Structure formats: C-alpha cells, structure tokens
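Write out this protein's structure.
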Amino acid sequence: MRPTEAMDRPVADQAPPSPRLPPAARTDAVDADVPAAVGHVLDALLAERVARATALDPVFGRDLAARVARFTLEGGKRTRSQFVWWAMRACGGGPARAEAALRIGAALELIQTCALVHDDVMDGARMRRGRPALHVDVADQYGERYDDAGTPAPGRRFGEAAAVLAGDLALAWADDTAAAVELEPAAARAVRELWSALRTEMVAGQYLDVRGQVASAPSVARAVRAACLKSALYSVERPLALGAALAGADGARRAALSSAGRCVGTAFQLRDDLVDVYGDPRRSGKPVGGDIRAGRPTALVAVARARAEAAGDRHALGVLRRSLGRADLSESGLAEVRDVLEATGARDTVEARIGRLVDRGLRHLESADLEPEGRRRLRELLHATAGSPPAPDPTEARALRSPLVAARADGPVR
C-alpha cells in the first residue's frame, strides 16, 4: 500500500490490534531479574505504541514515538521498577499481583523518560547516558546545529520543541499504562491517588529546581526541600508506596516503607549533587559541573555558602558568586569551586548527612513486618540508591535499631 493510501484510511483502521503482553511470569522468575521482566513488558507495550503512532503518521512515529521507545528501553537500571516489585513482594504480594507490579514498573520507566527528556531541555544539556540528548539528536537530524554551550542558532528551537512533545508523549503513555492496570477497587483507588501525587510532586520539584537558578540563593533547608520533591518522593518513596498498595499492605507497613523511601531518596539526590561535581563522566554519562554551570541551587552549594558566610570567608563567597550559573566556566574554574566545597566543609557535611539519612531509612525498613527476602532486597536497593557501602547483615541491621545509633542518626543536621 502506498503511504498516501494508508494516510487516507480512518485512524481507527490504521492502528494495529493490541498484542497481548507476555503473561505474568512466576514470581520466582521475576525475582531473579526484575529489570529484565519489566523490559519484556516494555518491549511489547512500546512496540504497540510505536506501531500505532506510525500508523497515525510515519514521520511522527519515526521522529518521536520511536525515540521515546528507544530512550526508555535502552536506559537506566530500572531502580524505580525494582522498588515497586520488591515492596510488593516484601508486603506479601505474590503471583496475583505480578502482572500489575510489572505494568506499574513499566509506567514508571516511561514517566522517567518524560522527566529526563524535559530536564535536558531545561538544563540545555547536550548529553544523556553518554549519547546526544534527545533534543540535540532531533535537531541534528534536521540540520539544526548547537554551539559548544548547547545553544541552538537564534530563532531555531526545533529540537527543543520536539523534545518537549516527546516528553509529553512519554507521560501520556505512562498514564495510559498505569490506568490500564486491573485491580480491585480499594487497591485501584490507592494506586490512582499515589500516581496522581507522584506526577504533581515531580513537577513541583523540577519547578523549584529551575526557579532556584533565577531566584535568590536558597537556605540549606529550602534546598533539601527541593531535593525531596525532585527525587526522594518520585524516585524512591512513591515507588515503594505503589508496591505496598498493590500488595494490600496495612498502614504500619506502608508508613514504614514511605519513611524509609523519603530518607534514602533525599540521600540519593544529595549523592547526585556530589557526583555532578566530583563524578566520572564515563560512569555518569554526562559532563561534570553541570549543576555549577547552570547555577542550580543544590544543597551542596547552599551548605558551602552558609558556612562561608558564617566564617566571613570572602574568598569562598567570591568564587561561588562568579562561578555559579556561568555556562562557560572553565575546568580550572570548576576546580576552584571544588576547593571551596572542601575548604568550607560542605562536601564532608553532605557526605555525613547522606550517611545519617541512610541509617535512618534502614531503621524504618527494619521496623516493618516484612517478608525476609523482600526486606533483604529492599535493603540492598536502598544502599545502592544512596551510593553507600554494601548492605549490613542482619546483626548489623539490629545494631541500627539500638538507642545509641538512633540518637546519633536522628540528631540535627548542620
């Protein structure tokens, strides 16, 4: 059939029938490799979505739908999906909930695609996961070139506009996937409420992030609040809560998992702030110093500024003032910022805070009545997410609940 003939047909006739997704695997098979199981669901789901988009319009299918699918399938460790699965398993969920957990995990991978694609546009980032960011890739396809600072030629913002639409498409697919999960009324209501909260919190965190680049320097507390909204809730707490809701967990288990997720999710964002300044681009997939050059109001910078002001350190304040928000900041300039972060004690302070948050999160996890294997897997995930040392054995976990450790971990953070 010629392309014009296909386009003349009614849209309903063009869309291929929805293929059946792979049947829910046995829970022990999924336990062995959760990312692969979620990947299988995404394979079928996205093949269907891309086929429908291509039937609607071949260019749209090729330029946007296929890129959204590729970005989603090729990226990340599927950590959010793993939190959903292992929270469900830790709360006693079994085969009857496997399909729902995998589909919710797939939906989270799609909303992550939305967040990252939009984030790269807002940040003017050129690289993601070691490859050109989606807006750069689309622009390059159509001959729209970016300069060394990642800025398009005047009046030419096609790549960015296309990426905004690609992120919107990923969000629409995520919502469709979550809405299609079949659950009994009580669980469906709980999942729907959590999903709604997650999306709004994610946008709120992103807004505070970009607002901080033009507003006055935030306090440490405000910077941590933004980190909580941007990452802690969306990346850890809500995925855990979704898994618990799928399993029909009681209030005590839901509360313990949510508290654990909030603590470790905040630690995750603080770790990400450190990686941005001190990390290895070969591992992170993006250049170091992006937050500094964008003038992003991270907690790390807020701590450094607060300490420099308290000490009357004019040199440190001067370095921060002339470096933050400079897209053309040199490597030597970035090295100066690193020196300030270390001289003021900001780096050590944030590292210490990460440790306390992880300890606190683990105590919340250990306080819950959970299935042993699920608890163990969640403990490992929480440690890996925060970039902290390997998970403790059960003896060490019991030590975390001791009054001495509890008093130290719950003490004030400066």
